[in-house]
Amino acid sequence: MQAAAFADPTAVSEALDAAGYLPDRGLATAAFLAMRMKRPLFLEGDPGVGKTALAQALAKITGATLLRLQCYEGIDASQALYDWDFPRQILHLRAAGDAADRAQLEASLYDRRFLVARPILQALEQHPATLLIDEIDRADDEFEAFLLEVLAENSVTIPELGTITAEVPPLVIITSNRTREVHDALKRRCLYHWVAHPDFAREVAIVRRRLPEVTEQLARQVATAVGRLRESNLLKPPGIAETIDWAQALHVLGAAQLTAENAEETLGAVLKYHEDMARVQRELASLLGG
Question: How far apart are CA 27 and CA 207, in angstroms?
Answer without folding.
Answer: 19
